[in-house]
Amino acid sequence: MKVALISGITGQDGSYLAELLLEKGYEVHGIKRRASSLNTDRIDHLYQDPHHPNQKLKLHYGDLTDSMNLTRIIEECRPDEIYNLGAMSHVKVSFDTPEYVGNVDGLGTLRILEAVRLLGLEKKTRIYQASTSELYGGIPENKNDNGFYDENSPFYPRSPYGVAKIYAFWITKNYREAYNMFACNGILFNHESPRRGETFVTRKITRATARIALGLQEKFYLGNLEAKRDWGHAKDYVRMMWMILQAEQPEDWVIATGKTTTVREFVRMSFAEVGIELEFKGLGINEKAYIKSCNNLEYQLELGKEILTVDPKYFRPTEVDLLIGDPTKANTNLGWIPEHDLASLVNDMMSSDIKLMKKHQYLKNGGYDTINHFE
Ligand code: NAP
Ligand code: G4F
User: Fold this and answer.
1) Full domain range(s) for residue 285
2) pLDDT value for 369
3) End residue of a domain, out of 188, 212, 241
4) Which CATH number characterizes residue 72's domain?
């Protein structure tokens, strides 16, 4: 039986990847941080009875800032594959905690690579590093002739997060070349899901849309509505992480959809999912969105009601204006074909958040929390 170790197993990608690997028959080990409150919501359904002899998911307390702890965990489980997904992954927050991000997102990767080497596992253990489209920084002239970022495009990170991740990218590549390790970077463009953290823009939008539609919230605030992102579904992207480690040669891969969309359009699409049409008026920090029409009898809101305002507090000191990736190498060489497009992503996130907010509404009104009430 193959053994995998996932750092960041409690995050969006870690939880989907753990599911995928368990389905494939792996024994899965995950590193979770000790927190004062429970942080395993996304994987609880995979980990119901830790004492069961057939429990194939095993959790270890750990942290990417602690070399000895990482070395001990790797020595204990001697993994065939390590997926290094652990990171402080919020770009805006990285401007507030730059040193910490350098330590976790940059040096954390080195600690894993070095532990594998020191334990003499460099021939056995394949390593996936969660690299990012933030490395490109959205510099227009660095796109290829077809207008995309690909594996050969130059990097120009625009945040402490991007700078930390560029160290992780290069140290992964360096260990591959210096020590012949099967260590790969997946340069993943934005990917989202119903499990996306609540402060990333897509989830912030789908949660707020659901709450506004249900009358639980009046309006919400966003930063740069002009920013454009290449958004895919996390389930498609974790499948590709696994494929990268099954490839014949260790290489770096771009994973993207090849389409880019503004934040404003994502807002429009989310409201359209519940039959609400919006009208945007004003420019820059004065832009607002209003209810134009409601075509769903369940979600009737006052026409002309203001539901979105720009708040500059969400602007970044340096912004990545536009990201769009070229996944041709992954499509051609590994046969990676995503199952979701942006419309099905928005549909998945909205139906999940409507269900969640209906549950909140029900509980707020004194209902009991019966597990399958809203399934
Ligand atoms: P996420 O939901 O924010 O999950 C991050 C995970 O890292 C969580 O399990 C978190 O633990 C853990 N973590 C944070 N600090 C840690 C530390 N010091 N030591 C050990 N673990 C730590 O992120 P994601 O969206 O799943 O992304 C997974 C990886 O892919 C990240 O490295 C991210 O930077 C990268 N990436 C993401 C995208 C994207 O669009 N999602 C695109 C490109 C690259 P807690 O649960 O305790 O916070
Ligand atoms: O959802 P975001 O916070 O994601 P961002 O910055 O693109 O980073 C995500 O994707 C990266 C891959 O490219 C990952 F490496 C990284 O770990 C993370 O998963 O913001 C997307 C865009 C930005 O341009 C931001 O300025 O949305 C804009 N935005 C506008 N209003 C907002 C908001 N972002 C957030 N988080 N909150 C807002 O209110």
Assistant:
1) 201-226+263-320+341-364
2) 52
3) 188
4) 3.40.50.720
Catalytic residue check, 134 = yes
Q: Are residues 13 and 46 in the same domain?
A: yes
For ligand 2, say whether the CB of 132 is within 6 Å of any of its atoms.
Answer: yes
Distance 285 CA to ligand 2 centre (A): 18
Q: Which atom of ligand 1 is nearest to the CA of 89?
A: 34
The verdict on pTM exceeding 0.85 is yes
Among 196, 171, 170, 164, smallest CA distance to 88 is for 164
| 89 & 182 share domain | yes
Query: Would the CB of 260 count as within 6 Å of ligand 2?
Result: no
Measure 94 CA to ligand 2 centroid, in angstroms: 12
Kindly give the number of the ligand 1 atom that is closest to the alpha carbon of 197: 2
Same domain for 147 and 207, yes or no, is no
Identify the sign of the CA torsion 364, 365, 368, 369: negative
Q: Is 221 assigned a catalytic role?
A: no
- Crossing angle of helices 234-246 and 12-23, in 10° steps, is 60
For the stretch 274-302, pLDDT in tens is 999 999 999 999 999 999 999 999 998 99
Q: Which of 10, 132, 209, 260 does the annotation list as catalytic? A: 132
Catalytic residue among 134, 192, 257, 273: 134
Structure-token match 């253990």, residue found: 125
Number of domains in the chain: 2
Percent of the chain beyond pLDDT 90? 93
Pocket mutation for ligand 2, best pick of 16, 169, 200, 315 (most atoms within 8 Å of C-beta): 200
Query: Do 271 and 310 belong together in one domain?
Result: yes
What residues form DSSP beta bridges with 126?
81
Residues 26, 110, single domain; the answer is: yes
Judge contact between 223 and 314, C-beta under 8 A. Answer: yes
Q: Are 25 and 139 members of one domain?
A: yes
Distances (CA, A) of 168 to 21, 132, 221, 226: 24, 10, 33, 29
Q: Are residues 217 and 101 in the same domain?
A: no
Please report whether residue 254 resides in a domain: no
Measured CA distances, 231 to 16, 50, 279, 339, 344 (Å): 17, 35, 23, 13, 11
What tens digit of pLDDT does each residue of 104-119 get? 999 999 999 999 999 9
Residue 372: predicted pLDDT = 44
Question: 168 and 208, same structural domain?
Answer: no
